[in-house]
Every structure is written in structure tokens, then in C-alpha cells.
Design brief:
mainly alpha, 3 helices, 73% helix
Length: 60
């Protein structure tokens, strides 16, 4: 899962920039893409948060 999330976010960012869609959504995708790739201290909590959100989706 650690490899597919940055890949999907990168593709989404590329498509948003290509289509000239610049807003809060593209900014959030760019920030998440950077954190997942950077492996900073903030990457682990963000990874845990996204994993929790993905795991919570089927329970809705």
C-alpha cells in the first residue's frame, strides 16, 4: 500500500495540473504526495490517518 498511494496521488496531481484545475483539492493532493514521498517525521501520522480513513470507508 505504501507504493500505490503516492503513485495514485502523483497521477491525480499530474492530471489536475494538466487540466489547469488549481484549487484546494490539487493543493491537498500535492501536499499529501510530498509527505508520502519525503518520509519525514510527519509522513507516518499522515500514513496512519489515510489508512484509518480507507479502513473506515467500508463501515459507512
Amino acid at each position: 500500500m505504501a507504493l500505490t498511494i503516492p503513485l495514485l496521488l502523483g497521477i491525480a496531481l499530474f492530471l489536475m495540473l494538466r487540466a489547469h484545475i488549481l484549487g484546494w483539492g490539487s493543493a491537498a493532493v500535492a501536499v499529501l504526495f510530498g509527505f508520502f514521498l519525503a518520509s519525514t517525521g510527519a509522513a507516518e501520522p499522515i500514513n496512519q490517518l489515510t489508512t484509518a480513513l480507507i479502513d473506515a470507508i467500508p463501515d459507512l
